[in-house]
Amino acid sequence: MASVALSEAEKVYIVHGVQEDLRVDGRGCEDYRCVEVETDVVSNTSGSARVKLGHTDILVGVKAEMGTPKLEKPNEGYLEFFVDCSASATPEFEGRGGDDLGTEIANTLYRIFNNKSSVDLKTLCISPREHCWVLYVDVLLLECGGNLFDAISIAVKAALFNTRIPRVRVLEDEEGSKDIELSDDPYDCIRLSVENVPCIVTLCKIGCRHVVDATLQEEACSLASLLVSVTSKGVVTCMRKVGKGSLDPESIFEMMETGKRVGKVLHASLQSVLHKEESLGPKRQKVGFLG
Amino acid sequence: MAMEMRLPVARKPLSERLGRDTKKHLVVPGDTITTDTGFMRGHGTYMGEEKLIASVAGSVERVNKLICVKALKTRYIGEVGDIVVGRITERRRSAEDELAMRGFLQEGDLISAEVQAVFSDGAVSLHTRSLKYGKLGQGVLVQVSPSLVRRQKTHLHDLPCGASVILGNNGFIWIYPTPEHKEEEAGGFIANLEPVSLADREVISRLRNCIISLVTQRMMLYDTSILYCYEASLPHQIKDILKPEIMEEIVMETRQRLLEQEG
C-alpha cells in the first residue's frame, strides 16, 4: 500500500483526534469523504465506472466475452478480476512494484464474490457445458489516496450495474451443430441484477477507536484494519484482517457491527446515485476525464 | 454517520466564473509569444528563429519592454532568506551525527528552517539558527504548489482565531496550536505530546479545510486571505467546507472581501 512518512508528533495528534471523534479534516469516525461516481466513461467496454473518493481515483471496465463454462459449474458463467496499480498513482508502483498490491486486491474481490447470491451467474449461461459469458472486470488505480478497497468495490458495483451484455440465441442445425446468433439491435441487451453485489467497508483501528474511510495519514497511524464485505441488506459475505497489529474479539465484533451499519447506508447512497444517473437518459452530459 | 455520493460536475473555467474581461495570454512550452524582436526577454522565454518562444507553461507578463512568462505551477526554487518547512528523509551517517543528532531529530520529523545558501545545481542549505525555527510538534501539514504562497515579510503567523500557521515558501503549510508560553522556548527540539484541546482542534481542522479550498480555487495564500476564508466558513460545519458548492461560495466571499479591502 502506498505509505506516507509522518513524524511522531503528527501521529500523536491524529490518534488523539480520533479518540475525540474529530479527525484532521473535521469528519467524525464514521463519516465518508465526498464520493463522485460516473458510469459509462470508457466507450469500448460492456460497462465501466469511475469513482473518486477524496484523492483516490479508480476506473473499472467490464468486458463480456464468450467462453466455456467451468467443469464443476456447467450452467453458469463466471467473473474474472484483474487489478492494475498504475505507476501514475504513486512512484512506488513503478515497474513491478504494484503487482503485490494488485494480486492482493484481486484475491479479495474473488473472495467477496465467491458465493451463490452476489451475482446470478445462471443468467450468464448461453448453452450448458458449451458456451457462457465470462465477465472480465479490470480495475485501474489512477490515484492512491487511502481507502482503496472501499473505492474499488463501489466502482465494481457501479460498473456491473452499467454492464450491457448482448442478447444471443442458440440455433440448432439438422446435423446438430449449434450456431450462435447475435441480435441485430445493438440496444437489445441483458443487464445484471446488482441487488446483492457486496461492497467492502474498511475499518482501521486507531488507538482504541476505529475509523471508516481512512486517509493515507490515518492509515499510517493504524496497526490493524478489518475489511468487511457487506451487501445492501446488511449480510456479511466475507471478512478479512490486514495489518501487523492484533485485534481483540470485542473490537472485531464492534467493528463488524459498524461495518454492517455503514455498509447499508453506502449501498443506499450508491443505488440512488446510479438510478439518478440512469434517469438522466442517454442525453446526459458526460464529464469523463477532461472535466 | 454521513455519506454523500454525487455525480461529477464539469468545472467551469476560472475566467468565466470571475467575469473577467481581459483573458490572460496563456502559453505552453514551444509557443511563439511574439515575432517583434524589440522586446527584452525575461524568465521563461528564449530566442529562437527570430521570434520569442516560451519555455514554460504559464501566462505572459509584459512590463514595458520586458516580456516574461510566469509559470502557473512550479517546483520550489530556493532563494536566500526563504522560510521552508521540510521533512527529514535521509541523514548522513557519521559517528558525530549518531551521537549528537539521534536524540533530537529522527527520519520523518518535520522542521522549519531558513535558507542560508543556494547552490548552482538548485540544492539549498538550511539553518535553524534562531529559536523560532526547529523541530515541529503536533499539528497538521498541508502540501500545496509553491507558486501559491505569496512572498511576504514574515511567514510565521499567529492567527487571531486561535491557531498559528507557518507558510513555507516551498509549499508546505504547517498549522499548529498556538503555544501558551512564548518566553521560554526550548528551541523546539523537545516535542510536547500532551493532547490538544477540542476547541483548538476544531480551529486547526477548519483552517486546514479553508486552505485546501483556497488552493483548489487557485487563490494566493497569505495571512489575510486565510483569515477571511476562515471567517467566511464559520456558518458551515467543518466537514462541509470541502464540498464543491460550499467551497466555491466561501472562496467567492473571500475574494470579494479582499477586493473591497484593496479597493
TrEMBL record, chain A:
GO molecular function: mRNA 3'-UTR AU-rich region binding
Primary subcellular site in the record, as a coarse category: cytoplasm
GO terms under biological process: exonucleolytic trimming to generate mature 3'-end of 5.8S rRNA from tricistronic rRNA transcript (SSU-rRNA, 5.8S rRNA, LSU-rRNA); nuclear mRNA surveillance; nuclear polyadenylation-dependent rRNA catabolic process; rRNA catabolic process; TRAMP-dependent tRNA surveillance pathway; U1 snRNA 3'-end processing; U4 snRNA 3'-end processing; U5 snRNA 3'-end processing
Superkingdom as given in the UniProt entry: Eukaryota
InterPro entries in alphabetical order: ExoRNase_PH_dom1 (IPR001247), ExoRNase_PH_dom2 (IPR015847), ExoRNase_PH_dom2_sf (IPR036345), Exosome_comp_Rrp42_subfam (IPR050590), PNPase/RNase_PH_dom_sf (IPR027408), Ribosomal_Su5_D2-typ_SF (IPR020568)
Residues annotated as domain Exoribonuclease phosphorolytic: 32-166, 196-261
GO cellular component, as recorded: cytoplasmic exosome (RNase complex); cytosol; nuclear exosome (RNase complex); nucleolus
Subcellular location: Cytoplasm; Nucleus, Nucleolus
Residue spans crossing the bilayer: none
Matches recorded under Gene3D superfamilies: GHMP Kinase, N-terminal domain
Keywords: Acetylation, Cytoplasm, Exosome, Nucleus, RNA-binding, rRNA processing
Family, similarity comment: Belongs to the RNase PH family.
Protein name, entry field: Exosome component 7
Organism, as annotated: Gorilla gorilla gorilla (Western lowland gorilla)
Gene: EXOSC7
UniProtKB/TrEMBL annotation, chain B:
Positions of the Exosome complex component N-terminal domain: 26-63
Domain of life: Eukaryota
Entry-linked InterPro entries: Exosome_cplx_N_dom (IPR025721), Exosome_RNA_bind1/RRP40/RRP4 (IPR026699), KH_dom_type_1 (IPR004088), KH_dom_type_1_sf (IPR036612), NA-bd_OB-fold (IPR012340), S1_RRP4 (IPR048565)
Primary subcellular site in the record, as a coarse category: nucleus
Keywords, in A-Z order: Exosome, RNA-binding, rRNA processing
Similarity comment text for this entry: Belongs to the RRP4 family.
Protein name, UniProt field: Exosome component 2
Species annotation: Gorilla gorilla gorilla (Western lowland gorilla)
